[in-house]
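Reading group handout, session on sequence-to-structure problems. Before we discuss, look at one worked example. The prompt was deliberately terse, the way you'd type it at a terminal:

> structure Sugar transferase

The input record follows.
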Amino acid sequence: MSSSAISPTLPQRCPTTSQVVEAQLVRDWRYECSKRALDITASLTFLLLLLPLYILIGVGVKLGSSGPVFFRQKRLGRGGKVFWCYKFRTMVPDAEALLAHCSDLLARFDENYKLTDDPRVTRLGAFLRKTSLDEIPQLWNVLRGEMSLIGPRPIVVPELSRYGDDGARLLSVKPGLGGIWQVSGRSDTSYAQRIMMDMKYIESRSFWFDLRLLIATALVVIKGRGAY
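And the output record:
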């Protein structure tokens, strides 16, 4: 009998914990670099291409009602960093004060942080919301690195408590201009559903998943589904 026939098969060497961690860090680094490259390229391109529309909307907002062209609000970013999130103004001036003085509207708003048939929305504002054109200024947030093209919803500080133990996971990534929530009903979804979608994205995120969501988001925006 030959020696090769009786020699035991040596087990394959399993990767050590440090090797597994290192491989994951490399994958994360590649993903973050490719994601940031896409964010910069796309946001800068669309900011330049949409500049005439940007100016036209700004003039329309200014002529439609008194007040500033832009609405800005503090939102939570990655690591809990607070940043100014920009949109074209779609509501009448002093909209926050009007909400605070109407208990019925305030109660409905506190439930989902959304209102259907919001009486504070201007005529042009309703169109901008329906077409999602009000969110074009957030491309500036993406270019600055405060947001990403795809990610969880950008939330205001009081909303964080609604996430409970998942709050830390939410703040581990950048909020997005679009995402699962936008292709799955947008404003028609409940708050609990939105949280679930945010967590699903964080668990499943990858460059190709982001790319698929980006295309799906564009199609939903074109159709104007679930926006108000």
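Points for discussion. First: The two ends are 81 Å apart (CA to CA). Second: Residues 74 and 83 are 5 Å apart (CA to CA).
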